[in-house]
Here is the input.
Amino acid sequence: MEKPFEEYCHEELAAIIEINLLSPTIMIKELLTIMKAQKSGHIVDVPSMTEEFRSPDIFTYCGVKAAIIKMLQAFQNGR
Here is the structure.
């Protein structure tokens, strides 16, 4: 879904954020529960390069991908 940012309706923006930020966040939370129970584990992230492109046509997507990268970095640094 590529179009100028100002053409997205609220529902489209919410869907992009839910799919690309909320879903991975929930998955990481569930993985951490399992990893704590096992007392071991790793999370390997293969990020999208679009975070680096900063294209106005995929503004929201780029933003949520950058957010995931920063969230995982913060988690890693906090351990």
In short: The mean pLDDT is 83.
